[in-house]
Design a protein that fits this description.
By secondary structure, this protein is mostly helical. It contains five helices and no strands. α2 crosses α3 and α3 runs antiparallel to α4.
Length: about 150
Amino acid sequence: CVGYCSLQDIKDEFKQLKLDSDGSAVTEEKVLRWIQQDTSYINSKISVKYQVPVTAGPDALNVLKKICIWLVSDRIKDITEVKNVRPEADQDVKASLSQKAEDMLDEIAEDDLPLLGASPVTNAGGVGSYTSRNNVPRVFKKVPDQW
């Protein structure tokens, strides 16, 4: 497995995507590299909360698949728009998918969007607290005793 999505997943996002090596701006090799790169990027963003690569939990894997497809599709869309000088409406893929993906990754990292079935990072040997686990804001005052 190359990453959180497959070459076929990317092909399915576009109605007419020509992936060949005859001078095409986007080749299968490039798409596979982008899938690897974006999978690594996803892992770097979610590794604060989950063990990566995520290999368990069909719900978690489906969310990560969606994010990876969005990231790679936007890369392809940007290249094909420049190469073909076609209007955005003709690209057969929705606009600003990578921003949606970035937002979802931030939500995962901030624990607002849990990856169901994924293994959380353990704090072996570390110190934890209710305040840290639940993102309770810390307030320090200058005058009163707080200890």
